[in-house]
Structure formats: structure tokens, C-alpha cells
Design a protein that fits this description.
This protein has 223 residues and is an alpha/beta fold. Helices cover 41% and strands 13% of the residues. The protein contains 8 helices and 8 strands. A two-stranded parallel sheet has the order 1-6. It has a two-stranded parallel sheet with strand order 2-5. GO terms for molecular function: oxidoreductase activity; transferase activity.
Length: 223
Amino acid sequence: MCSDKYFDEDHSNLIVGPVNKPRWIYSVSKQLLDRVIWAYGEKEGLQFTLFRPFNWMGPRLDNLNAARIGSSRAITQLILNLVEGSPIKLIDGGKQKRCFTDIRDGIEALYRIIENAGNRCDGEIINIGNPENEASIEELGEMLLASFEKHPLRHHFPPFAGFRVVESSSYYGKGYQDVEHRKPSIRNAHRCLDWEPKIDMQETIDETLDFFLRTVDLTDKPS
């Protein structure tokens, strides 16, 4: 819920909602571990690097069965809706914006962190994201739909069932609270890794969709 234009590893405040919104358990648990590791580094000399992946996206990161129980990435949930001919649900209109990162860009950055050339990553917090690939969930759905409609395997799947706006309280429960935008600063990734993301969001969408459409009959048939 930070209001900064870019979420900076070293300067942005980590702001969460009230205790009666249990959605923040996930965020706070990660933040607690970051703070513990940082404290051990400062007080006990622990060698560490903290990295924060921002919405990594691509083939094989999860599967349609995970989407069926609501534990997948957003794009996988949307692909499931297209494959099964069910409406794409836009929570509170789908206006929430995220920055999506191709898995290949992400893994390249992670490899450089592990390599740690010149120990430049020691004691650093590094965002791994693509601030240029910003889109709302609604826009992601529209881009995915356009790719789906022109895919050579399109005729094997049901007609598009449309978009449906759903209130977050009815979908997630009363304890849910969302973040309207989250754009990472990648200043530390430039400085420590000589890294920047290269892959456009449309390419990632096309390749992710193609993977699922070509494998759905083999591994992801509805039970």
C-alpha cells in the first residue's frame, strides 16, 4: 500500500492494512523474515542477499489444477477460464495494476545473484521485476483473450464466456484488501547485477498461453 511511484528496496515504507484484514498475513510474514535476516547480517555478520520477485510469469510456473483451487498466478487463472469456457472474473473491476516479469528475465537475475560477482550482492535487497510491463488485471485479460482468439488451437475450446465483475468481499471474503499498484524500482539490480529485463509482456503472454493450450489435454483435464 506504499504510495511511492516506484517501490524502492532501501527507502520505500512497507505499509500494510489493519489486523482485521488477514490478507496481509502473507505480506507481513515475508517482511518479518526479511527483517530477521537483515538483523542477523548487521549484528552477527551473516552473508545474505534478499531478492524480491515481482509477478514472474511464464510456462511451467504452475498448472491449471492449481487455478481450479484458487492457488495459481493470475494469468493461469485467466487461461483456465478460457480453456473451460467460464467467465473471466475481474475482482473489483480488475483495475489493480501489476508489473509482470518474464521468467527468463527473472532467472537470469537470480543466477547473477547466486554468482555474486565481486561480492556486490552482499547485504543488498534486490527487486527483480519489469517496471515497463505494467498492466491492470483487466488489461492482462484483454491481451490474453486477443492471443487466445488467434491461436491455431482455438477451435478446440469453448466460446469466450465474457468478463464478469465480482466484488472482492464475495470472492475472497471480508478479510481481503488489495493494492492498487505495485511498480518496482530496479536500481539495485542495475547496480549490483548489471541486469535489466528485456522480454516484452506480450511475448510472455503468447508463450505462456501456447504452453497451456498444447498441454491441457495431456495433464490438465477437469475431473
